Amino acid sequence: MPSRRFVLLALAALPAACASPNPTLYVLGTDPGATRTGAPRIVQVRTIAVAHYLERSQIVRSSEGYRMDVLPNEWWGEPLDTMTGRILVQELTQRLPGSSVYGEGGAISTEPDATVEIDLQRFDLDRFGAVLLLAQAAVDGKTRASRSLRLTVTPADGTTAAMVAAMSIAIGQLADIVAGMLARP
């Protein structure tokens, strides 16, 4: 008959043996672009609106064919709306060297000369395996402009890291378009 101490040690070890491995965490990276002049001096990027199906820790691989393919153990390192806004601020700062760009949810609260609004409607793989970014972008400053956007970037391979790299490039392309909208004459 096993000793009481052995049984207690076995019971204590049981949760560790049944635990899931820690998820792999991913973040979007910045993608440098061409600089622009003539944009408003102070630009505020409003909180990014993200389609609700993307509001989860797990990375959504695809939403094709009436179903969602979610990567169960590969997660975003921060909420997608927050991360996308943070990356967009960094990229616009690089692209608009004559402007101060800040995010609406940050510590800065000055009156902007222009605002940027993004409605991210889809951001996952399409049926061809390319990252598809569907969004609406609007700027309000020296001029008002809005655009519906459809951007695609093909990942280098089928890994999640390649998918996230392609997503980062797509956000860079979005930043290029927004910078162009802000720097209009």
Percent of residues in helices comes to 25-40%
CATH superfamily: ABC-type transport auxiliary lipoprotein component
CATH C-level name: Alpha Beta
Low confidence ranges: none
Please state roughly what percent of the residues sit in beta strands, choosing from under 5%, 5-15%, 15-25%, 25-35%, 35-45% or over 45%: 25-35%
How many structural domains?
1
Task: Using the alpha-carbon principal axes, give the shape.
Answer: globular
Distance between the termini: 86 Å
Tell me about the biggest sheet? 6 strands, mixed
Q: Quick one: how many beta strands?
A: 9
Mean pLDDT across the residues is 90
Continuous helix count: 3
Query: What string gives the helices and strands in order?
Result: HEEEEEHEEEEH
Radius of gyration: 21 Å
Which CATH architecture is right?
3-Layer(aba) Sandwich
Query: What structural category do the secondary elements indicate?
Result: alpha/beta
CATH topology: Rossmann fold
